[in-house]
Inverse folding.
C-alpha cells in the first residue's frame, strides 16, 4: 500500500514538474525550448538565398485565413469586387471591341502566321501594350481588374492577340521598371513601352534551366568596357535563352543572368546572384534566333543569345545597387502577375468554349434529340458550367486582392494552377461534345485552336506539376502558417539568447495552434460541423458550405502541422503528400472565391445550382485529397490518429447529384440571364440582390419556376436551396 502511495506521489511530482517547466517561462526556455531549437537547427534543411527569396516573396492575406483553421468569413464577404473606372469601361466597350472585330483567328494562324500589321499598329496606338504603365508615363494606368477584363475578352476572340497583349503587361521590363527602375530608366523606357515604340520581352529560361530557373548558367562579369566611346563600369554578359515570348519581334530585351564580380569592382562579394538588365535588341552581339511555333499558336516566340556582350551598369534594372537582387524582384512581381495573365486568358478561353458548346448542344440533334438533352452529354456540360463559374470567381477575387495592393504569392499560384487545369478539363469536355466539329480545322472551328494551345498555359509561369507538388503547399505552409516562419527565423538568429526567446514564443503558439485545430476538427467532425459559426450576412442557401469549409480549414491546419512535425525536411521530397495537402488549400480557395462571387453577383437564385455544384465538387475532392494523405502517410500510427481526428464518423461528402448536374447543364443550353452572367456578357454589372419577390422571379429562370408546390416536390430544388429554402417555399 505504502509502495503504491510512493509511486503515485512520484508520478504526481513528475507531472507537476513537467507542468511547472512548461508554465514557468525561464524554466521552459532552458529545459524545453533550448534543446528543441538545437534539434530544429540540425533537422531544418539548409535554405539557399534564392529559396528564401521565393518563400518570402509577396504578401499573405486570405490564404493565411484559409490556413488558420477559422477563416474570417465576414472579412471576405465585406470585400467588394474591384470595379472599372469610366475610362476602363470605355476602353473595353470601344477599343477592345474594335480590336476583336479586326481579328480573324483563322487568318492570323493560317494565312499571316502572325497578327496582321494593322492589328499590331492598332494595339500599339491604343495603348494595349502599356495598360499597366501609369498615365504619367503615357500608359493607360489600368487596374489589375481592368487588365484582367481586357485579356479575358480578347481571349474569347484570339489566343494570339491575348498573349501579345498580356505579355508586355505582366512579368517583364514594364513591371520590373515600375517597381525597381531608377527614375532615369523609367523616363527613358516607360513612355516608349507605353506607346508601343518598344516591344518588350523577358528572357529567363535557358535550355538547361526551365522549372529550376534559379540555376540559370547565363552569366555576367563585372568589368570596365567601352560604351558610346567612353570607358565605363558594366558587365560582360553571356547567355542562351529559349521559348521567349515576343522575342523574335522584341526591341527591348529583359534579361536574367547571374552576376559575378571577381575583381570586386562593385562590392566585396564574388557571386552577386541573379540580376536583371534591359538590353536593346539592336545592341551589337545580341542574336535573335529562329522563331519557335508553339503548338501552331502564332504569337511570337523564339530563342536569343549573346556571347561576351558588354552592357553598361545603368542597363541593370535599378542600377548597381540592384545587382544580385533579380530573383527577389522576379518572385515579387510573379506573386501578383501570375494571378492575372493566365487566369484571365484561360477564363476567356473557357467562356468561349462554354458559350459555343452550350449553343451547339442545343442545335445539334442526333437520334431526333438535341444532344444536350442526353444524360451522357449533360455530364461534361455540367462540369464545364461549374468549372467556368468557379474559374471566373477565382479570377475576380484574385485581381481584387492585387488591386488592393496585395502580392498574393500563394493565392496567385493556386489561381494559375486551378484555372489552367480546369480550363484543360473544360476544353477537353467541349471537344468531346463537339465531336468532328471540333476536330476538323477551318474558319468556323471554335475549339481546335484552344485545344492545341492548352499545354502552353499549363507549362508557363510555373509548370503545373511543379506548382502543385512543390509550391502551393510548400510555400503555403511556411508563408501562411502563423508560427513556422518565426520558428525558422529563430534558427537563423545569431544572438543565442534572443533565438531561444523567439523560438520559445513561436513554439508555444504553435503547440496551442496545433492542439486547438485538432480539437476543433474533431468536434466539427463529430457534430457534422453544425455548430461552426457562419457569417450572418451569408445567403441562407450557402450557409452550410461556410461551416464545411471551416471544418476543412481546421483539418488542413492540423494535418499540415502533424506532417511538418513528423516528416520535417523530408516533406519537401514527399511531393505526392505535399501535392494533396496543397489540393486541400487550393479547394478551400476555390470554394471561398465561389461563395464570395455568389454574394457579389447579388445571390442570384437562378445561378445557385452552379454555386452548389462547385462547392459540393470542391468538398468531395478535398475529402479525397485528405484520404490520399492519410492512406499514404508513412507513419501508420500517426495516420490512424489523423483519420480519427478528421473523419471521426467517416467521410461525409458525396459527389454532386445527377439532378443538380442536370440543372447546371440546362443553364448552359437555354438562353437565360444566368448563361449571360456565366459567359461574361454582364460581368461588369453588379446585379441587384435578389430578395422577396425577386427570389421567386429568379426561381423561374431555368429551374422549377415560381410555383411553390411544384418546387417543393422537386428534389433538386430542395437540394440546391437546402432545408431552409425548402421550408421557406412550403
Ligand atoms: C510557349 C512558351 C512561352 C514561354 N515564354 C517564356 C518567356 O517569355 N520567358 C521565359 O523566360 N520563359 C518562357 N517560357 C519558358 C517556360 O517558363 C518554361 O517552359 C517552364 O518554366 C518549364 O520549363 P521546361 O519547359 O524546361 O520544363 P522542365 O523544367 O523540364 O519541366 C518538365 C516537367 O517536369 C516538371 N517538374 C520540374 N521540376 C519538378 C519538381 N521538382 N517536381 C515535380 N515536377 C517537376 C514540370 O512541372 C514539367 O511538367 C515559355 C515556354 C513556352 C512553352
Amino acid at each position: 500500500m505504502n509502495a503504491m502511495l510512493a509511486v503515485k506521489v512520484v508520478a504526481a511530482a513528475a507531472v507537476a514538474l513537467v507542468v511547472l517547466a512548461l508554465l514557468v517561462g525561464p524554466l521552459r526556455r532552458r529545459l524545453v525550448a533550448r534543446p528543441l531549437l538545437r534539434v530544429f537547427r540540425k533537422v531544418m534543411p539548409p535554405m539557399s538565398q534564392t529559396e528564401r527569396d521565393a518563400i518570402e516573396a509577396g504578401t499573405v492575406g486570405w490564404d493565411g485565413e484559409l490556413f488558420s483553421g477559422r477563416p474570417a468569413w465576414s472579412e471576405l464577404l465585406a470585400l467588394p469586387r474591384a470595379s472599372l473606372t469610366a475610362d476602363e469601361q470605355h476602353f473595353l466597350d470601344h477599343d477592345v471591341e474594335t480590336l476583336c472585330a479586326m481579328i480573324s483567328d483563322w487568318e492570323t494562324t493560317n494565312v499571316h502566321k502572325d497578327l496582321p500589321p494593322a492589328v499590331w499598329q492598332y494595339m500599339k496606338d491604343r495603348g494595349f501594350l502599356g495598360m499597366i504603365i501609369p498615365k504619367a508615363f503615357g500608359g493607360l494606368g489600368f487596374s489589375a481588374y481592368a487588365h484582367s477584363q481586357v485579356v479575358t475578352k480578347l481571349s474569347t476572340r484570339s489566343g494570339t492577340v491575348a498573349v501579345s497583349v498580356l505579355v508586355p503587361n505582366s512579368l517583364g521590363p514594364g513591371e520590373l521598371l515600375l517597381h525597381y527602375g531608377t527614375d532615369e530608366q523609367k523616363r527613358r523606357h516607360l513612355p516608349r513601352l507605353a506607346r508601343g515604340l518598344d516591344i518588350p520581352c523577358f528572357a529567363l529560361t535557358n535550355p538547361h534551366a526551365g522549372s529550376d530557373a534559379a540555376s540559370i548558367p547565363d552569366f555576367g562579369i563585372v568589368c570596365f568596357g567601352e560604351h558610346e566611346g567612353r570607358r565605363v563600369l558594366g558587365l560582360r554578359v553571356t547567355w542562351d535563352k529559349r521559348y521567349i515570348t515576343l522575342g523574335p519581334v522584341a526591341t527591348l530585351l529583359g534579361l536574367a543572368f547571374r552576376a559575378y564580380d571577381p575583381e570586386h569592382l562593385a562590392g566585396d562579394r564574388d557571386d552577386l546572384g541573379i540580376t536583371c538588365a534591359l538590353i536593346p535588341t539592336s545592341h551589337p552581339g545580341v542574336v535573335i534566333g529562329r522563331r519557335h511555333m508553339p503548338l501552331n499558336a502564332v504569337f511570337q516566340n523564339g530563342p536569343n543569345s549573346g556571347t561576351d556582350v558588354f552592357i553598361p551598369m545603368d542597363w541593370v534594372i535599378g542600377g548597381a545597387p540592384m545587382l544580385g537582387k533579380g530573383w527577389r524582384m522576379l518572385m515579387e512581381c510573379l506573386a501578383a502577375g501570375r494571378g492575372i495573365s493566365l487566369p484571365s486568358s484561360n477564363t476567356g478561353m473557357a467562356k468561349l468554349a462554354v458559350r459555343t458548346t452550350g449553343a451547339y448542344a442545343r442545335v445539334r440533334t442526333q437520334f431526333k434529340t438535341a444532344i444536350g438533352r442526353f444524360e451522357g452529354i449533360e455530364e461534361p456540360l455540367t462540369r464545364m458550367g461549374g468549372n467556368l463559374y468557379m474559374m471566373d470567381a477565382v479570377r475576380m477575387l484574385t485581381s481584387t486582392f492585387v488591386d488592393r495592393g496585395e502580392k498574393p504569392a500563394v493565392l496567385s499560384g493556386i489561381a494559375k494552377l486551378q484555372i489552367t487545369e480546369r480550363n484543360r478539363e473544360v476544353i477537353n469536355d467541349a471537344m468531346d461534345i463537339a465531336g468532328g466539329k471540333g476536330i476538323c480545322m477551318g474558319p468556323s472551328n471554335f475549339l481546335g485552336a484552344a485545344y492545341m494551345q492548352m499545354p502552353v498555359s499549363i507549362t508557363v509561369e510555373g509548370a503545373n506539376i511543379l506548382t502543385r507538388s512543390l509550391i502551393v503547399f510548400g510555400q503555403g505552409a511556411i508563408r501562411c502558417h502563423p508560427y513556422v516562419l518565426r520558428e525558422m527565423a529563430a534558427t537563423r538568429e545569431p544572438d543565442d539568447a534572443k533565438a531561444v526567446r523567439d523560438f520559445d514564443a513561436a513554439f508555444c503558439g504553435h503547440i496551442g495552434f496545433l492542439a486547438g485545430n485538432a480539437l476543433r476538427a474533431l468536434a466539427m467532425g463529430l457534430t457534422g460541423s453544425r455548430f461552426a459559426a457562419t457569417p450572418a450576412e451569408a445567403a441562407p442557401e450557402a450557409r452550410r458550405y461556410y461551416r464545411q469549409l471551416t471544418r476543412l480549414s481546421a483539418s488542413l491546419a492540423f494535418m499540415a502541422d502533424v506532417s511538418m512535425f513528423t516528416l520535417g525536411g523530408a516533406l519537401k521530397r514527399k511531393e505526392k503528400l505535399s501535392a494533396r495537402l496543397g489540393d486541400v488549400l487550393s479547394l478551400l480557395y476555390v470554394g471561398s472565391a465561389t461563395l464570395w462571387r455568389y454574394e457579389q453577383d447579388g445571390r442570384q437564385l437562378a445561378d445557385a445550382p452552379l454555386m452548389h455544384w462547385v462547392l459540393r465538387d470542391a468538398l468531395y475532392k478535398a475529402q479525397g485529397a485528405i484520404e490520399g494523405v492519410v492512406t499514404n502517410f508513412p507513419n501508420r500510427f500517426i495516420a490512424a490518429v489523423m483519420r480519427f481526428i478528421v473523419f471521426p464518423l467517416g467521410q461525409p461528402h458525396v459527389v454532386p447529384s445527377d439532378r443538380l448536374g442536370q440543372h447546371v447543364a440546362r443553364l448552359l443550353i437555354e438562353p437565360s440571364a444566368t448563361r449571360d452572367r456565366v459567359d461574361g456578357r454582364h460581368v461588369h454589372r453588379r446585379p441587384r440582390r435578389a430578395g422577396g419577390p425577386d427570389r421567386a422571379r429568379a426561381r423561374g429562370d431555368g429551374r422549377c419556376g415560381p410555383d411553390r408546390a411544384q418546387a417543393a416536390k422537386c428534389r433538386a430544388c430542395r437540394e440546391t436551396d437546402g432545408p431552409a429554402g425548402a421550408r421557406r417555399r412550403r
Remarks:
- The longest strand covers residues 230-245.
- The pocket of flavin-adenine dinucleotide is lined by residues 201-205, 210-211, 243-245, 294, 301, 456, 459-460, 463, 465-466, 469-470, 575 (CB under 6 Å).
- Residues 342 and 460 are 9 Å apart (CA to CA).
